[in-house]
Amino acid sequence: MSWQTRAACRDTDPELFFPPSDDDTAPVVARHLSAVRPVCGRCPVQTECLTWALDTGQDVGIWAATTPTERRAIRRQRLAGVPDPVADREPACAACSLLFPVPAVDGSLCSTCQEKGA
Ligand code: SF4
């Protein structure tokens, strides 16, 4: 995986990307996502990362700012023939280029940028 050498998370604590829960509603997962999203948001290989995580069925951890639950939803949509952010390279946040985890997200900014008022 040569793209990993360009990953923005290369020097980040790997434990940040592996919360001790798979429950997206758990506060600990939200804290990990808050810490990880800015890193993934400036990562030049976010698309490659998400593609790899989806194609290899990564079912634990945060990859390209997506949780296992979000990636399962994307995989289900792929199987159903629904366009996905990897295939279309869309939609992405207009401010930070973070890929939206699922294509149905409204608006042009990711939640982090919306919170910042970007
Ligand atoms: S998108 Fe996030 S998890 Fe993936 S390589 Fe980049 S910084 Fe790491």
From TrEMBL:
Main localization, broad class = cytoplasm
Family in the record: Belongs to the WhiB family.
PTM comment, free text:
The Fe-S cluster can be nitrosylated by nitric oxide (NO).
Q: Which UniProt keywords apply?
A: 4Fe-4S, Cytoplasm, Disulfide bond, DNA-binding, Iron, Iron-sulfur, Metal-binding, Transcription, Transcription regulation
- PANTHER family xref list: TRANSCRIPTIONAL REGULATOR WHID-RELATED
**Protein name as it appears in the record:** Transcriptional regulator WhiB
Q: What does this protein do?
A: Acts as a transcriptional regulator. Probably redox-responsive. The apo- but not holo-form probably binds DNA.
Q: Which cofactor does it need?
A: [4Fe-4S] cluster
Q: Where in the cell is it found?
A: Cytoplasm
Q: Where does [4Fe-4S] cluster bind?
A: C9, C40, C43, C49
Cofactor binding, note field = Binds 1 [4Fe-4S] cluster per subunit. Following nitrosylation of the [4Fe-4S] cluster binds 1 [4Fe-8(NO)] cluster per subunit.
Task: Report if keyword Transmembrane helix is assigned.
Answer: no
Name all 4Fe-4S Wbl-type domain ranges. Answer: 8-73
Q: Which domain of life is it from?
A: Bacteria
